[in-house]
Design brief:
Blueprint: E1 10-13, H1 23-32, E2 43-47, E3 53-59, E4 64-70, E5 85-88, H2 90-97
Parallel strand pairs: 1-2
Antiparallel strand pairs: 1-5, 2-3, 3-4
């Protein structure tokens, strides 16, 4: 996948979207239903009715981009609300794109401590 544009926010469009829509149809949804600017450089993620397809719309500064993904097995985890948006981090988007439940992500082990790190000492 291409890298995230710096400063871009990621928005999930809650509810179900007709994924027959293309650049213009999804841009119109961003403007009318999400009350956002599709040319702001943010990523807008839409999911189809069955839950195994999604589309991501974003403006890269020189043109509109549209990414589509279909899972062979499983469904994309989506918020239960029917309207509005949910903000994601780039890590959560990566998990979503892999079919992982991004809402319950947690570390399985603590990060290792760097042995070269100097611990501050307290003055007595």
């Amino acid at each position: 996948m291409m890298g995230m544009p710096p400063g871009a926010r990621i928005w999930l469009a809650c509810g179900v979207t007709d994924l027959r829509r293309g650049f213009d149809g999804l841009s119109a949804l961003v403007q009318t239903q999400l009350a956002a600017d599709p040319y702001a450089g943010h990523l807008f993620v839409f999911r189809g009715r069955r839950g195994n397809r999604l589309k991501i719309l974003w403006y890269s500064g020189d043109g509109m981009n549209l990414l589509s993904k279909r899972l062979d097995g499983g469904r994309f985890v989506w918020p239960q609300t029917a309207t509005g948006t949910v903000a994601l981090t780039s890590a959560e988007l990566s998990m979503l794109m892999e079919g992982i439940d991004w809402r319950r992500a947690r570390r399985t082990a603590l990060a290792p401590i760097d042995p070269d790190r100097v611990m501050p000492t307290r003055a007595a």
